[in-house]
Amino acid sequence: MKKYHLLRLNLGWRILIGLILGLIVGAIFYQNKIAVAILQPIGTIFINLIKMIVLPIVISCLVVGIAKMGDIKKLGRVGGKTIIYFELMTTIAIALGLVVGNLTKPGDSININTLSKVSISQYTTAARSAGHQGLGTIFMNIVPTNFFQALGKGDMIPVIFFTVMFGLGIAAIGKKGTLLIDFFDAVSEVMFKMTNWIMQLAPIGVFALIGVTIAQFGLSALKPLALFLLIAYATMIIFVVVVMGLVGRLWHINIFDLLRVIKDEVILAFSTASSEAALPKIIEKMQKYGVSQGIVGFVVPTGYTFNLDGSAIYQSLAALFLAQAYHIHLSIGQQITLLVVLMITSKGMAGVPGASFVVLLATISTIGVPAEGLAFIAGIDRLVDMGRTAVNVVGNSLAAMIVAKSEHEFDEAKSQEYLSHFKPSPKMTKVS
């Protein structure tokens, strides 16, 4: 009797099945408090499992990578390239959102009075406190007064700063630091093994998280804002395929090859709306794909604060959408001001929960849109968040490859060998 290995689906397919089942269950149990109470803890536990391993992976990989790099001048050069690249791509993303918003005018067809409102009180306090942060405060917060406190809070940038300094210190003491390098190298291997175990639970976690979202808001929340949702996703796809594709091509990188390698992580990020969920595997895969450990350990975690391309597209598009819905005409000068404001605020609030929504809340006042206007799109924020998180993951993976190539620390042979594992097989394997 012949059997197909149907049960041995790869992780991406299993996550996709979990996503579809979550949509179905959420729709069936719409506004059912018992279903939400059952599913919510499952999704929360999965996200907590991921958060548990993120910082140990970042620290161990970065310490080893920086220690082996051992050159503070090289580190400064890599850091400079990374920040400049991030800023350029984020600016392009914001500009693309503004261009598409002006061309499609999604807010013109909306009657603001017919849209249902969702409370935005949970974001108000965060926006108020984050909005008072100037650039000086942001830069001051990079340096932790207490590393373990930053570690406990999960503040990525202060942790990265200390870890980089620690790695350079290990490199500076020469042979005495070998023991520490070996220790952190072993820690990273252990953490990657744990990652593989945890990722087997991803389909269950995705099922629960999607089920809760749909059960709470329902599919009906999509109807009045379907056009905005469609335009937002179309813009994100254009950014990935066209903008990232062209930038990648300048460095001889095929964006579709990259997507093939990280497709499971993109699906996971999309399903959970959490960049952290994909971070451990992205770090592991980028190393296997030919990027040096030091570059991956620095660029990818830093990108989760400074290179949020999907979020940038959403913020500019949503700001224009709301202005159009309120019949507020924005001149070219006002839109340029909006672009500059978004460039600054998006960096200052990256670590705030619901950051993209908080950025909008703190920004739209500059174009005359009432703060309560965000209540009209709050209902679909989670659904847009899924798309922008997936774009963020792709953007940071591409950034790691480009910075590595610019530093001649990209192994082409290793890349091609690893890519071959992701080429589709000609036919389904059969066994008797």
UniProtKB/TrEMBL annotation:
Query: Any idea what this protein is called?
Result: Transporter
Q: How the protein sits in the membrane?
A: Multi-pass membrane protein
Task: List the lineage, top down.
Answer: Bacteria, Bacillati, Bacillota, Bacilli, Lactobacillales
Q: Which residue ranges does UniProt annotate as crossing the membrane? A: 12-30, 42-66, 78-100, 156-174, 195-219, 225-247, 289-306, 326-345, 357-380
GO CC, one annotated term: plasma membrane
| Keyword vocabulary terms for this entry | Cell membrane, Membrane, Symport, Transmembrane, Transmembrane helix, Transport
Question: Known InterPro entries for this protein?
Answer: Na-dicarboxylate_symporter (IPR001991), Na-dicarboxylate_symporter_CS (IPR018107), Na:dicarbo_symporter_sf (IPR036458)
Q: Does the keyword Membrane apply?
A: yes
Could you provide one GO biological process annotation from this protein's UniProt record? dicarboxylic acid transport
Q: What Gene3D superfamilies does this protein map onto?
A: Sodium:dicarboxylate symporter
PANTHER family, A to Z: PROTON/GLUTAMATE-ASPARTATE SYMPORTER, PROTON_GLUTAMATE-ASPARTATE SYMPORTER
- Which GO terms of the molecular function aspect are on file? symporter activity
Q: Which organism is it from?
A: Loigolactobacillus backii
